[in-house]
Amino acid sequence: MKRSARTIVTLLSVAAASAATHQSDAAAQSASIKPGDELRPIYAKLEDVADGKRLADSSCAGCHGVSGISTTAGIPNLAGQRPSYLYLELKAYQSGGRTNSAMDASVRFISDDALVKVSAYFASLDPAQPIAGAAPTYLDPVQAGKTAAAVCAGCHGEAGVSKTPGTPSLIGLDPQYLASAMKAYRSGQRKSDLMKSMLAVVADADIDHIALFYALQKPGRAQTPAPGDPEAGKASAAGCAGCHGDQGVSGNPATPSLAGQDALYLAAALRAYKNATRLDETMKALAASLDDNASKNISAYYAALEPQPLNIRKPPTTEEWAQKCDRCHGLNGNSTDPRIPALAAQRVEYLQAALSDYQTHARRSPEMAAMSGVLSEEEVNNLAAHYSSQKARAVVFVTVPGK
């Protein structure tokens, strides 16, 4: 142990100004601790920390490693962790507020005094440091989409604005719709041998990246001819607004916007719905009564409309997400709040699992559920890699005389 003779362990206590505050025996000071009480310091002497070491060596080291540095995937480092956080989490396992079969069995019969001591011991250790090697690289989903979409430009036009009659523009479409359409071509649900072959080697993640890239591009009408009468098409298209939106701009992520779309593509899609080579019962019923002229007129009407920008923002970068996390977890994940865990140099797969557990509510925290709920799988992985690569720093809690 490399700390001073007395380790200040900030824990919970019923009486913020109790005389027990000045005792050096951790057992006497923690006897009345209850979850939800106010924080105050408890002083753990060297012998208290030594008792915590003996308990850690016998009960914790098998999973969390010698000196609290884990060598097991998915098991967190505990060395240098904030003591109040450790104590509160151990109490949560005891109360059922947090569950894990191995941890439940390990802490079930441990006294409150022992929990204080083992928390003090782990807090007194030098924290783990990042594994040596190159700094992690973070995937930019928009750039990844642009790269993956390079082969699409020959048919669908630069930035997704079609210049080829019969080929759809890809801008102005919600990413959810465009991704599902590409996956339907890949599976053969939508018929196009060319699209099926091109998408056969594209992973789901890259399909999502492509859809996001096009969703963020500046919208514009297809630069293709539109045979048909737009005015006649406007009257015929009155029944389409319920799904495809006023002026051809959809408000439903699963339904495509039609404004500015290539007219020949729209007409061909209507024929495909009519003859059931493209399957959708609602569209089949609506297209059944349309002849070729009516389909061309409707298509010309929508082609003449101006597509609108989507209400979609570029996802935050890993650095931008980390700035938000640092507000609670401290600069680069080095928490100075005794109740909030340090993240710096933590095992990457543990951080990934923890964020996923908050997302699914397997681990309960309203604040963390709100923060993690909007993260994609890529963002979870990027954040975990970011914090696991940060230098961990010990923290000292200082008490000063009251005024």
Brief overview, please?
The chain folds into three domains: 1-128, Orthogonal Bundle (Cytochrome Bc1 Complex, Chain D, domain 2), CATH 1.10.760; 141-304, Cytochrome c-like domain (Cytochrome Bc1 Complex, Chain D, domain 2, Orthogonal Bundle), CATH 1.10.760; 317-394, Cytochrome Bc1 Complex, Chain D, domain 2.
What does this structure look like?
The protein has 403 residues and is mainly alpha-helical. The chain folds into 3 domains: 1-128, Cytochrome Bc1 Complex, Chain D, domain 2 (Orthogonal Bundle), CATH 1.10.760; 141-304, Cytochrome Bc1 Complex, Chain D, domain 2 (Orthogonal Bundle), CATH 1.10.760.10; 317-394, Orthogonal Bundle (Cytochrome Bc1 Complex, Chain D, domain 2), CATH 1.10.760.10. Helix content is 46%, strand content 3%. The chain contains 20 helices and 2 strands. The protein is elongated. It starts with 5 loop residues before the first strand and ends in a 15-residue tail after the last helix. The model is unreliable at 1-6, 12-24 and 26-33 (pLDDT under 50).
SSE blueprint:
Layout (H helix, E strand, L loop, with lengths): L5 E7 L13 H5 L8 E7 H14 L1 H4 L18 H13 L5 H7 L4 H13 L16 H8 L4 H4 L18 H13 L5 H7 L4 H12 L14 H7 L4 H4 L18 H12 L6 H7 L4 H13 L13 H12 L18 H13 L5 H7 L4 H12 L15
Antiparallel strand pairs: 1-2
Helix pairs in contact: 2-6, 4-6, 7-11, 9-10, 9-11, 12-16, 14-15, 14-16, 17-20, 18-19, 18-20
Approximate helicity band = 40-55%
Instruction: Return the domain count.
Output: 3
SSE order, one letter for each helix or strand: EHEHHHHHHHHHHHHHHHHHHH
Ranges where pLDDT stays below 50 over 5 or more residues in a row are: 1-6, 12-24, 26-33
Q: Outline, from the CA principal axes? A: elongated
Strand-pairing-aware structural class: mainly alpha
Percent of residues in beta strands: under 5%
CATH class of the largest domain: Mainly Alpha
- The CATH architecture term of the largest domain is Orthogonal Bundle
Can you say what the CATH homologous superfamily of the largest domain is?
Cytochrome c-like domain
Radius of gyration: 30 Å
Record field, number of beta strands: 2
How far apart the termini lie comes to 33 Å
Q: What name is given to the CATH topology of the largest domain?
A: Cytochrome Bc1 Complex, Chain D, domain 2
Strand order of the largest sheet: 1-2
**What does the largest sheet look like?**
2 strands, antiparallel
Total helices: the number is 20
Instruction: Give the rounded overall mean pLDDT.
Output: 89
